[in-house]
Amino acid sequence: MTDTLKFKEDLVAEVQADFQKRREARRPLELQWRLNMNFNAGNQFAEITPRGEVEDLGRQYFWQEREVFNHVAPVVETRLSKLSRIRTGLSVCPATSDDKDIAAAKFSTAVLGAVTAENNLGDLTREASAWSEVTGTAFYKITWDAGKGVKLSAGGETAYTGDVAVSVCPPFEIYPENLNISELKNQGSVIHAKVYTTDEVKRVWGAEVKGEPVNVFSMDTGFSVGGIGYGASAPRVSSEIRENSVIVIERYELPGAEHADGRLTVVAGDTLLYCGALPYANMTDGRRGYPFVKQVCTDTVGAFFGTSLVERIIPVQRAYNVVKNRKHEFMNRLAVGILTVEDGSVDTDNLEEDGLSPGKVLVYRQGSNPPRMLDAGSVPYDFASEEHKLLEEFVLVSGVSEIMKSSEIPRGVSSGRAISLLIEQDDSKVALTANSIRNALKETAQHILRLYKQFATVKRLKRISGENGSVELAAFSGSDLSGDDVVFDTENELADSPANRRSMAMELLKMGVLNDENGKLPLRSKLKLLDILGFGNWESARDLDELHLKKATRENRIMEKDGVTPDTIDHHELHIQEHIKAALSEHADGKKDYRARVEKHIALHKQLVAADAHGIFSAAEQLKDEQKN
C-alpha cells in the first residue's frame, strides 16, 4: 500500500514537473499568440515587454494621438469568410469492389454525416479556423463520451450507450514534447492542460480535489486609445484569476517498449485521477494514438505550431497607425493653432484655458506685441505617400486584395478575363490554409469511424439521411463500418462559387451540351439546371417531378429483391432515366437478377408510353392486370 502511494506521488510530481518545463519552453510562443489576439481585437498599442508580458505602456504626452485604424480584423474576417465555403461533406471509399464493401462504405458515409451533424462539425470548423487564423494553430479533440447516446435503464440503474464527442482545443491547451517536430504523430508525448472548476472535476472524474486561484486569459476593455480632448476604449486580452479551480493535466504517451499500448496519465493538482493505457485505437491497423488532429494557418518549417498571418501584418499595422496618428496631430496643430505671446504681455492662464474664442476681448500690456498664431505650414505630402504605400503593403503581406476584402474591382481593370485571373489569384492565396482544413476534417472523420468500430460493439440506432433525402433510423454496430479511406464530396469549393456554377451552366446551355440526341433539353437536366441557377422552386411542377424521382429511387431498392409493376400515373420519361441509371451503376454489377428486374420494369414503362401515345388506356390497364395475375 505504501509502495502504491509512493508511486502515485512520484508520478504526479513527474507530470507536474514535465508540464512546467514544457510551459516555460513554449512561453515565447504564447506571448506572440496573445499579441496577435490583441491586435485582432483592436488593442494595437500593446507590445511584449522585456519582463515577459504583453502590456500597453500608455501615452507619452497628453496630446498624443493614439487612435487605432484596424486593418488586421478585416483581413482575418475576409479569410474566414472565404474559408467558410469549405463544405464538411465527407464520403467513405469502399476498400474493394465487393458488394459488401460498397454497402459498408455507403452506410459509413451516412453514419459519418449523422455524427458530424450531431456534433455541429461546421460550427467547430469555423471556431478552429478562427483560432488558427489568429494564433496559427488549432486542434480537434475526438473522444468517446460514455455519457452520450441513448439512455438505458435496468434494475434501477441508468446508463448510456455512449457516442463520439468532438471539441476544439486552442493552442494554449496543447504542450508537445518537442517544439521542433512538426508532425503530431511523431511527438513522443503530448500534454493537454485545461482549467476546470472543482465541481467539474468531481462530475467528470468523480474525485475530490483542492481548488485554488488559477490565472486564465480573458477579454476586457481598457482605456487605451483616443486623441487630444477625447478618449476611447479597445478590447484587450488580459489575465484574470479564476477561483476554486484547478489545472487538469492529461499526458498522452505513444506506445513503446515500456508501455505497449501507450499511457495516459491525468493529474489535477496533487491528485492522480487516472493512469492506464491510451484509451483509443484511432490509428491505422488498430494502433493506439493521440485523440487530436492539428489544423494550421501556415506551416512553419521545423516547428510544431503554425504561423498566423496576423504575426506578419503587425509591423505594417504599427507603421500605419503611427503615420495616421502623426498626420492627425499635424492637422490638430493646423486646426487649433499654436499661439506665441510675449512674456508678461497677457494673462496666459486665461488664454490657455479659453483660447482665442470668437468675440473674445484680448487685453495685452501696452507697448508689447499682441499674441499671434504660429505658422504651422501644411501637412507634408510624405504622409499621404507613406499611407498609400502601407495600404499596398497590407495586400502584399496578407494576400487579401481589394477584390477579396471589399468586392471592388481595381481601377483600370475592365477585362472579364483579367478579373477572373485576379479572383483565381485570391483563391490560390488561401489554398494552403484550405488544404490544412480539409486534411484535418478527413483525419477527424477517420477518428470518428475508428472509435465506432472500437466501442460500438452492440447494435445501436442512429438517425441518418437516406439517398433520396428521407430521414430514417438505422441499426448498426462497429463491424458494419469501414473508414480508412475518407474523401471529400468536393475539392474545389473556393473556385466553385455559386456565381461560377451559374455562369458555366448558362454557357453549357447555350452550346447545347445539355441537349439530348433530338436537340431537346431533357426534363431531368432541366431540373438540375434550375437548381444550379437558384430557381429550384420556381416552377410549380418541380415538386411533382421530384416526387416521381423519389418514387423511382424507391422502386430501384425494391427491385433488389422483387419485381415492381409501373403505375399509369408515373412520369415514364423520368422513371426510365432513373432506372437506366440504376442498371448501369456499379451497384448492379454482378447482380444478374437485379438487372433483369430493372430491364423488365423499363420495358413495361415503354409499353405504357406506347399505349398512352395511341390513346389505348384500356391496354395500359390490361397490361397491369396481366402483371398482377
Overview of the structural elements:
This protein has 629 residues and is an alpha+beta fold. The protein has two domains: 2-310 and 430-488, no CATH class; 498-628, no CATH class. It is built from 17 helices and 19 strands. Strands 8, 9, 10, 11, 12 and 13 form a six-stranded antiparallel sheet that branches. α6 packs antiparallel against α8 (381-398) and α14 (541-558) packs across α15 (572-584). The longest helix is centred in the N-terminal third of the chain and has 40 residues, at 2-41. The radius of gyration is 34 Å and the shape is flat. 26% of the residues are buried.
Brief rundown of the structure:
This protein is an alpha+beta fold and 629 residues long. It is built from 17 helices and 19 strands. It is flat.
Using brief descriptors, characterize the structure shown.
629 residues, alpha+beta, 3-stranded antiparallel sheet, 17 helices, 19 strands, flat
Q: What count of domains describes the coordinates?
A: 2
Number of helices: 17
Dominant shape? flat
Instruction: Note the main sheet.
Output: 6 strands, antiparallel
Counted beta strands: 19
What class would the helix/strand composition place it in? alpha+beta
Uncertain residue ranges: 537-542, 616-620
Strand content: 15-25%
The helical percent reads 40-55%
Distance between the termini: 82 Å
C-alpha Rg (nearest Å):
34 Å
Mean pLDDT: 79
